[in-house]
Every structure is written in C-alpha cells, then in structure tokens.
Amino acid sequence: MMQRYKSIISYDGSGFSGYQVQPNKRTVQSELEAVLAKMHKGKPIKVSASGRTDAGVHAKGQVIHFDSPLPISEEKWEIALNSLLPVDISVLSVIKVDSSFHARFDARGKEYHYVLQLSKKRDPFQRHFAYQYPYSLNLEAMMQASRHFIGTHDFTSFCSAKTEVEDRIRTIETIDFFLDGDFLTLRFVGNGFLYNMVRILTGTLIEVGTGKRKPEQMVDILGEKDRRVAGKTAPSQGLYLWKVFYD
Amino acid sequence: MMQRYKSIISYDGSGFSGYQVQPNKRTVQSELEAVLAKMHKGKPIKVSASGRTDAGVHAKGQVIHFDSPLPISEEKWEIALNSLLPVDISVLSVIKVDSSFHARFDARGKEYHYVLQLSKKRDPFQRHFAYQYPYSLNLEAMMQASRHFIGTHDFTSFCSAKTEVEDRIRTIETIDFFLDGDFLTLRFVGNGFLYNMVRILTGTLIEVGTGKRKPEQMVDILGEKDRRVAGKTAPSQGLYLWKVFYD
C-alpha cells in the first residue's frame, strides 16, 4: 500500500543548479529522486516540493512529499535518506501524512531570510552564505521603505519579468531586520512569493539604504507594475528558504 | 629596493590540499605565489608563512611575509592581492616590516580554535566548518582533563608519529571552552604546536567527554611519550589557525 510522506529538508545551495530537475545538471530534486529510486530498486519515485529554489539559494526548511510502498518507520526513513544523500542535503524530519497532502498546494505561507554581510573585507567563509556588501546602509530608511510592502499588493514590479503566473497579488505579513555584528538579516514572511521576489525586494531596499531611492517611492514602484522600475535582484547566495507553513 | 611585507590572511581550507606547495595540488601557498609572480611579470616571489596548515584546516589569521621591489603602498597591496586571489583566500592586512622579520621564526605563540557541532542532525552548512559530533559529552570532565595540558610538557604523545622535529617540548598557556548553542569551541593558546597536536589533544579530550578515558589519565599519556596511547586525531574541518603572536 502506498503511503505519503512529508519531509523537511535543508540544503547548502552552493553546489546545486537549483532545486528543480534539469537535464545534465546537479539539482536537489534529482539527488532526492536518485536516492528514492535506489531504495525502490530502480522504480522512479516523484518528489514534490513546496516550490523551487534557484541556483545558489539555500534551504533551512524546504518541504517535500513523496509516496512509497516500503514498510519503513518515520525514523528509519530519516536515517536511510541521510545515509544515502550527498552531504550538502540533510533530511531533518520525515512524517507520514494523508495522501491528500501536497507540499506545494497546501502551503499557507513561507518565511525567507536574506543575509547581508556588511563588511569591507572579503570573508572567505561567507562567500557562499551571505551577500557581502561593503558600503554603509541607512537601516532606518530601509525599515521605513519595507513597511510599504506589508499587506496585500500586486507585486508585478518585484518579480522576474519571466514570471509566468498571472496572479501577482501576494500578502506580506512581516519584514523584520536583524543586525548581529556584521550580519544584517532581512526576514520575510508572507502567504507566497513570486519568482525572484525576495531578491528584488532586498535589492530595492538596499538601494533605499544607499540613498539612491527614497522610502516613499516604494508606493510608486508597486503601482507601476513593471519590473524595470524596481531595484536590482540581490544575488542568490544570501537567500534562505527558512520555513514553509501549513495548516 | 626590496621591501619586506607582513600580511595577515584568512582562508577557507576546504578547497585546498593544505597550505604548503605540493606538485599538482591546489595549495594556499601556490595560489599566493602565482599571484605575486603575476604582479612581478613572472618573477618568482617566495612566500613564507608562520607554519603549515593541513588539507581542510582553516585560517582566520595566518601570517605570511614576502619581499618585493614594487613601489606600492600597504593599502594598494591589500587591494591588488584581493582582486587577484581566488575567493577562498582573503588578505586582511599588509604592512611594511623590517627585512629581519620572519613570519615563522619570529612567531612567539599561536591561537587555534577547534569547533565541534554537538548535533544529531547533519547540518549541510557546517560540513566543512565544524566537526559534527552526535553523542553527548561531559564538558566538566573535558575541562578537568584539559588542565593537565596547561604549562610546559613534552607533547610527543600528542603529535603525529611522522613529526620530524626533535624538541617536542611546548608550553600551552590556556585551553578555554565556549559553548554557544550547538557549537562547542576549544580555544588553544601556546608558544607553539606540533604537527597535528591540536587535533590529537581535541580527539583525546572528546574521549574524556564520552567517558572512555578519565581526566587524570592525561598525566600518564603525557608521560608515555608515545602517540599510540593518546586519542584519535580529530578531523581537519573543525580546526582554525586563529592568530599568530609576535613581539
């Protein structure tokens, strides 16, 4: 009998061409599916995630689901997957769920963190894990600007022009700022995020921090519904899919 | 006219076969010398360090020196080297020193950190930067054991059997323990450390932490002067050359 499993996984995105399977590329999904196929004697097992992550983007709490007929306990699944997966993917938990559960369609919200290292010196230990930013930032202005994004808006200006979804209305619940030594973390919580949305929001907030844009301009940028009026896309290595919320 | 420069550098050791030049291997020294040769139109410039680090071992404050006839300011040296070096090596400072200065022979002491991640779950972000240790450790016993190493001792039991230096007497000033969340850091300060000494001290202290050895046995192990009686060598990825002290 088939059983559906929900699993929380973490990965260092620096060695992957993103989450989703692509021909001849090392991706998180292809590593997961290769391990599951091996456990099922070559039978392909499809893995569904809460959403994709781009090349270089990390996950602290990505959620996936898959179906299996193997009579294995939740604990044994966790041990088996971790022993077979490469060291840059870790399975944090595996639980049995109803076959109606879907990692993507049931997700009610997501939390992303974007980490900047505010330092003039290159830090070789952080090159894959934070965006090193050597110029000073006006955090007060960035926080003021971020308040314009809270609530329900059409985020067309803040998603990649390649975005195919029609409905670009999303609700952002909170954008918090944490400063710890050199590290500035922007924490985004919302009901969903469009393609590149957190990175474009971050890139635009950085431009507010440098004084290139004013906080109140965020209203106009939202209103324009045009990717070209927002700021640059912040680089992938600072982004972490932190948590996915379900009912 | 030749000028001697002292430079403090940091590197992520995970991509190097150690500090020292080896044929057909990527090493920190060979990267540094390749960049200096490029800056000197192919003329080889020898780089001397405070000491070697093994494959996988990191440096937060390795010290090197080199000589150059180029009329470049200290700040410009730092900028030039950082722009030419690979991203896993960072130059933190460059200063002019007297031609009698020697990074190795003038070093009066060193500080090493050994980082353990006390966690049952694999952390893909720490696999190169800490030794993940899933079993519980008696820190009180480890601290008690560490006190036997303070002072001047013959550390033959705590260096690789391959060590070629005759004089294995070293002075350890402090061994401090820091617990921060999952991370246990052992901080070693002393006048010098033999080959693999910090890793063997750490491996032996871990065996005290698990109850395999008693704190007072450290006295006997020192007395035996035999590598085989000490504990295992802790893995390289947890070790950081933190600082080198000069007069």
| Terminal residue distance of chain A | 26 Å
Shape of chain A: globular
Order of helices and strands of chain A: EHEEHEEEHEEEHHE
Q: Helical region count of chain A?
A: 5
How many strands of chain A? 10
Which blocks of ≥5 consecutive residues of chain A have pLDDT under 50? none
Q: Helicity of chain A, in percent?
A: 10-25%
Q: In what range is the share of β-strand residues of chain A?
A: 25-35%
For this structure, the quaternary state is homodimer
Task: Using a beta-carbon cutoff below 8 angstroms, give the protein chain pair with the largest interface and the number of residues from each chain.
Answer: A-B, 17 and 17 residues
Mean pLDDT of chain A: 97
**CATH superfamily placement of the largest domain in chain A:** Pseudouridine synthase I, catalytic domain, C-terminal subdomain
CATH class of the largest domain in chain A: Alpha Beta
Structural domain tally of chain A: 2
CATH architecture of the largest domain in chain A: 2-Layer Sandwich
Main beta sheet of chain A: strand number and arrangement? Answer: 10 strands, mixed
Rg over alpha carbons of chain A: 19 Å
At the fold tier of CATH, the topology name of the largest domain in chain A is Alpha-Beta Plaits
Protein name (chains A, B): tRNA pseudouridine synthase A
InterPro entries (chains A, B): PsdUridine_synth_cat_dom_sf (IPR020103), PsdUridine_synth_TruA (IPR001406), PsdUridine_synth_TruA_a/b_dom (IPR020097), PsdUridine_synth_TruA_C (IPR020095), TruA/RsuA/RluB/E/F_N (IPR020094)
Catalytic activity (chains A, B): uridine(38/39/40) in tRNA = pseudouridine(38/39/40) in tRNA
Keywords (chains A, B): Isomerase, tRNA processing
